[in-house]
Amino acid sequence: MKYVIEHFGKAFKWHLIEYEHISKLVGKENLIFTNVKGKKDSLSAFGEVKKESIAELCFPDVCVLDPASDKILTPEDCRRFKYLVFGGILGDYPPRERTKELLTSRMPNVETRSLGKKQMPTDNAVYAAKLIAEGKRFEDIAFIDTIEIDVRKGLSVELPFRYVESNGKPLISEKLVEFLKKRKTI
């Protein structure tokens, strides 16, 4: 399985941290970044980089993971598709169906699946899809909704997203946690 991140917008520091985490989760050889207008050199350390959008590349057997889709991704789907596409979109809370707006609307014949209605960080969505590609059913994946990270004494940040539970904890890059703790503004 190849995992494709259709990048939108500017690449912020936390994007790079999340993309590095994805590369570690699925392997650099299985990760493709598309629609990359800048930061090509920094992303090439994590996977293949293409300046074109996935909509222009015409890869075969593509499925876009879109939270607006009514069909949940299954292991059977993963045997049919060669590429799972994720929108690397700066998340909004509450979600605004931006994957549909920015990506699937440009690929009218593409099949779509979802990983439920709750918004996940891209690394968690990719990891959940990887678990499904390996044969696990979506309903058998444990999730933790909304996490709180203590950034300094008396101050924490709440992340209102869905995380895959891994060893009783939310799946989050330690680098991202450290980044959040060092930020000047929260």
Concise structural overview:
29% of the residues lie in helices and 26% in strands. 32% of the residues are buried.
Indicate the percent of residues in helices: 25-40%
Largest sheet: 6 strands, parallel
Strand content is 25-35%
The CATH architecture designation is 3-Layer(aba) Sandwich
Return the CATH class.
Answer: Alpha Beta
Which whole number gives the mean pLDDT?
Answer: 88
Number of strands: 9
The side-by-side strand order for the widest beta sheet comes to 3-2-1-5-4-6
Q: What class, by secondary structure content?
A: alpha/beta
Radius of gyration: 16 Å
SSE arrangement, N to C: EHEHEHEHEHEHEEEH
Short descriptors:
186 residues, alpha/beta, Alpha/beta knot, six-stranded parallel sheet, three-stranded antiparallel sheet, 26% strand, globular
Task: Walk me through this protein's architecture.
By secondary structure, the protein is of the alpha/beta class. The protein has a single domain (2-138), classed as Alpha/beta knot (3-Layer(aba) Sandwich). 29% of the residues lie in helices and 26% in strands. It has 7 helices and 9 strands; from the N terminus they run βαβαβαβαβαβαβββα. It has helices at residues 13-26, 40-43, 54-57, 75-80, 98-102, 122-133, 174-182, and strands spanning 2-7, 31-34, 48-49, 62-65, 83-88, 111-113, 143-152, 155-166, 169-170. The strands form 2 sheets. It has a 6-stranded parallel β-sheet with strand order 3-2-1-5-4-6, covered by helices on one side. A 3-stranded antiparallel β-sheet has the order 7-8-9. A hairpin with a 2-residue loop joins strand 8 and strand 9. The longest helix has 14 residues, at 13-26. The model has no long low-confidence stretch (mean pLDDT 88).
